[in-house]
Each structure stands twice: as structure tokens, then as C-alpha cells.
Design goal:
This protein has 10 helices and 12 strands. The chain is an alpha/beta fold and about 290 residues long. α3 packs parallel to α4. The mean pLDDT is about 95. Bound molecules: NADP nicotinamide-adenine-dinucleotide phosphate.
Length: about 290
């Protein structure tokens, strides 16, 4: 039985972790978001971990507003770099285990070959740079940790692409969605399952490692939107638009497909296909 702290528990991933942990009586889970535990304060992190005898920290907290970060870099770095360092330092001090989440936006996206965890990073946005710095901070402390880079996260919670497409699809006859960025959608419920598997098997990890995780299959945002409309039986047309025409504030990688070999082998898992996971999430949304 371990005491597991989940930070950012009101976010997408945090809520999916809650749903899974609810049926898991092997451990005691401590759910916190910024009101209960502000991870930008190392004193708060230290006190919480000491008081509750925490064995594992799962960091589901983050600054995730990619476009806003371009004009709000101080706050973005405070949460994604400095607060991550706080968690890593306390992990090291108490000789416990950290699971931290990073992103495909650490890559420039100029390669068509799926990215391995060991490939060089080259972030193009403030958010991407802040996440690279967060990864470095974890490595520098020398704590026992797994960093999972994931991409295009969606769920039945919070704001995400799937929920935005459903809203737009119900209110418009046609929409334009970017068709020149390729990546891997990831259902946060699947990522939550992987995290709990890693926590269970953490004994073999004595250092800090990076894994890549997304659902199987690489697609464009445009294809993703088509499938969402199809699943919801919406007649809204999904037209293509280029990244340049769309003109988001933050640059995004053109291709950020992950090589999933190491996570699949090290944890003996089968990763669900993106279409199956999308359907699962949309069914859960219908039942809410
Ligand atoms: N979303 C994606 O597409 C995506 C893709 C790749 C990787 N990731 C990574 O995956 C992780 C989880 O993402 P998500 O989409 O689940 O995020 P999310 O829904 O934005 O949730 C993040 C949570 O962290 C909280 N938080 C912010 N600052 C905090 C602080 N100082 N102390 C404690 N909690 C704080 C947020 O609260 P407020 O809402 O009040 O700020 C929010 O509840 C993040 O590390 C993210 O970078 C996400």
C-alpha cells in the first residue's frame, strides 16, 4: 500500500486519474489542485509530502495554455519549470518516486521519422521551452522519476479539441481545421492507466527516464475532426486550412509522431488505437 499524491487533480489527466483510482484500493490517493497545494511553493510541497508520508508524486499539474504562454512566459515557466523542480527536489530529499508529464512540443516537428525519447529536443514555443526546462530540472536533481511525453491530450473533462469540435459541429454547417500538422491523439484515460501501471512496477526504475506515449496511429487535426463529426453523426463539413492561414499565436510541430517502442516493451502494454479510444471517450461524454 502506497500513499500517492496527485497534483493538478482538477485538470483533464487529474480527473481521469481520479476515475481510475476510485476503484483501486491498493493505495491511498491524495488529490490536490492549486487551492490545496500550490506546487510553485516548495515549502507547501515539502510540508504536504512529510505530513502525508507520500511515496509517489504524480504531477498532473501544468500551465497548458499554449498560445497564451507566448505573452505570459513568466507564469508558464514558473509552473512548468520551477514548480516541477520543486517536486523533483522533494522527491529526491524523501527518496520517493515522481511521475511527471511532458509534451511532443519539445520537438521542432521537422522530422517525418517518429520521435524516440532519446532524439534531440528543439522547442519552438514558450510552452515547449518551459516543458524542456521542466524535464531538465527533474534530471538535474537526480531523483527517481519517469517523464512521460504525451501529445494531443483529450478527455471528457476540461477544455480540449474533442469538446471544441462537438460544440462547433453542433452550431455550424462547416468549419476549417488544420490539415498540415500530424501527430497522435491521446485519451487521458489511457494515459492515466499507463501511469498507474508505471507506479505499480516502479521498483525497476532507479534513475530518471523518459517515455513517449500516445494512442496508436498518426493523423492530422483535420482527420481527427472528421472522425469526431462521424462518431457524433454531425453533418458539419470539415474543410482544410493550413497552419499559416490559421495563424495561431504559438508555433506547433508539423510532425510530432512518437516512436512508442520503449514504453510498450518496458511495461508490456498494448496501446489502444486512436479511433477506439476516441469512441470510448465520446461514449463516456454521452453518459455524463
Ligand atoms: N493538454 C494537452 O493537449 C497536452 C499535450 C501534451 C502534454 N500535456 C501535459 O499533460 C499534463 C496534464 O495536462 P492536462 O491537459 O490534464 O492539463 P489541465 O487540464 O490544464 O490541468 C492542469 C491542472 O493543473 C492545475 N495547476 C496550475 N497551476 C498549478 C499550481 N501552481 N499548483 C497546482 N496545480 C496547478 C490547473 O489549475 P488551473 O486550471 O486553475 O490553472 C489544472 O487544474 C501537463 O503537464 C501538460 O503539459 C498536455
Amino acid at each position: 500500500m502506497s500513499n500517492i499524491l496527485i497534483t493538478g487533480a482538477n485538470g483533464q489527466l487529474g480527473n481521469c486519474l481520479r476515475d481510475l483510482a476510485h476503484n483501486d484500493d491498493r493505495h491511498v490517493f491524495f488529490y490536490t489542485d492549486v487551492d490545496e497545494l500550490d506546487i510553485t511553493s516548495i515549502e507547501q510541497v515539502e510540508d504536504y509530502v512529510s505530513k502525508h508520508h507520500i511515496d509517489v508524486i504524480i504531477n498532473a499539474a501544468g500551465y497548458t495554455a499554449v498560445d497564451k504562454a507566448e505573452s505570459d512566459s513568466e507564469r508558464c515557466f514558473l509552473i512548468n519549470r520551477d514548480a516541477t523542480r520543486n517536486l523533483a527536489l522533494v522527491t529526491k530529499r524523501h527518496d520517493i518516486f515522481l511521475v511527471h508529464i511532458s509534451t511532443d512540443y519539445v520537438f521542432d516537428g521537422n522530422s517525418d521519422i517518429p520521435y524516440k525519447p532519446s532524439d534531440p529536443v528543439n522547442p519552438q514555443s514558450v510552452y515547449g521551452r518551459s516543458k524542456v526546462e521542466g524535464e531538465k530540472a527533474v534530471f538535474e536533481t537526480g531523483c527517481r522519476a519517469v517523464i512521460i511525453r504525451t501529445s494531443w491530450l483529450y478527455s471528457e473533462y476540461g477544455n480540449n479539441f474533442v469538446k471544441t469540435m462537438l460544440r462547433l459541429g453542433r452550431g455550424h454547417d462547416e468549419i476549417r481545421v488544420v490539415d498540415d500538422q500530424k501527430g497522435g491523439p491521446t485519451y487521458a484515460g489511457d494515459l492515466a492507466e499507463l501511469i498507474l501501471t508505471i507506479v505499480e512496477r516502479r521498483d525497476f526504475i532507479q534513475d530518471c527516464r523518459i517515455y513517449h506515449y500516445a494512442n496508436q496511429g498518426a493523423i492530422s487535426w483535420n482527420e481527427f475532426a472528421h472522425q469526431i463529426m462521424r462518431n457524433a453523426s454531425l453533418s458539419c463539413k470539415v474543410l482544410p486550412v493550413s497552419t499559416a492561414e490559421y495563424g495561431a499565436a504559438a508555433p506547433r510541430p508539423a510532425s510530432s509522431v512518437f516512436d512508442l517502442t520503449s514504453v510498450t516493451q518496458d511495461f508490456s502494454i498494448q496501446i489502444p488505437n486512436w479511433k477506439d479510444s476516441l469512441q470510448k471517450c465520446m461514449q463516456r461524454l454521452d453518459n455524463q
